[in-house]
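Tutorial, part two.
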Amino acid sequence: MSRFWKSRAATTAVLLSVAMTTGTAHAAPSPPQSTATAAPLILSAAGKPLLTLGGSSAAYPDDPGTNTGTATDAQLGSTSVPIGGGNVPLNDILNLGGLASTVSSRSAASGPADTDAAAGTLGKAADPADPLSVNLLALGGAALVPQSLVDDVTLRIGAFSSQTTFVNGKLQPAKYRVGQASLLIHSPAVKDAASQLYQALGAVDRHIEKTVNQKADLAPLKALLTPFGVPSPTLAVQSNTRDKIFGALLARPLTSHNKVVTIDFSTGTVTVHLDQLVGGLNDKPANTELINSKDYHLISQAVHDVMKDAADLALGTIGNSLDAVKLTLRWAGPVGMGGMGGKLDVTWSFTLRQAIDGSMPRPVNASTGAAAPMAAAMLTTLTENQRMVGKAFKPVSDLLLATSRDGRPNGAARVPARAAVAEHLAGDGENIVELLLRIKLGFTSTITDMLLPVFRMANQVLSVEINHQEPRTCVLPTGVRLPSARFTSAVSINFLKATVAVRLDLGVSSGSVTISDCE
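Running the prediction step on this input gives:
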């Protein structure tokens, strides 16, 4: 038997020929023998080997091992894969990432009924920082999803390994491990929607500016300055809360509560965590399918959860962005009969937070003529009564802080807070809360509308199984069947769009033994 395992199909055939050899009644029985084979990666097409990385094998009695294999400096070379009636370069489909430096294999056949084979990320090797990836669009998915909707769909697989062992002729339970499995989707539609989200959030600033103008109570301030005979101040409001909200949304990716979906608004990327979709990757039954069209509703719900958190984050950001609301009070105009007393020009600029904290800078006096000394006295009065200015804008800050409380995770506290904000901010048939909810619904629809065809496409172009097992048995004279061989792979990917059967097996281990009187 070859030292290196050339393909899953070829190896399975060898295993069967060893484990299930039969002969005529007069033929001499075959001597007891066993085999063990392993490889971190095997790519095959129509039962023929295309690529094997880091393979090892052992055979009793000729070469019992333990033998090892490594995939250091592995190259995909000029290998191509038959897809859609043509040959697609493997480099276009598969990226090994950090695989080569983290995987190996070992094989041992210490007796006719004892074997041990393992491959993948063995020992204490960590998950590769750059996992192995498979380009689904290159597998035929590009024809199934418009490029304007999706320009990258990548399956990512992290650390993986499997182990197949026979002890005294008894097949041990399969051991396997998969550290990561996710579907990474980049969508121009999501990226564009994020840009549109930024534009839509401009309405939040307009609402805040309108609310400040409506709710600010300047009457006490006017009364304070009545002895000076100055005109009523004008109030200019400029809110830049949009940048605060958008910055918060872009600061880090948001992940759903069930950990199934992560959305990165900064890059327009949606990640579906397949490991979370199936409730974890390890300790699963044999041949567990990772991508199932029936699971789409879980993904859709996860997107809704993310966008709900995004809306709450936006609400909380509003309440924490009092410094993004700039207020300018200005007293300006001629003083005295016909303006003979000069021109009053006092400007006081500060943020809403400074108004509430009482930490406003001094007003700026640009008055002329006889109005200048009067303005100076007026400035003294204003700076000595800064708390009165804070009271003028406290109703507005209370509303924005209520909005912040509305964004807290505590759902029980959120409902009355939301109602209070809606009541106080209501105007022209809409308020900030309603506006954010409307934006959230639009963005959610964009993402779910994009994910549905992508998920359907993924179901058509490939099948991904974890803990893939192919057992073989022999039959005792009593009619009892016993396991005599098994092929195991931690992850088995079948390229369904291929014109011939193309498989990529990761973390492959296999063994076969001779069982007395078992054919």
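The chain is about 35% helix and 30% strand. In part three we will examine how such features are distributed along the chain.
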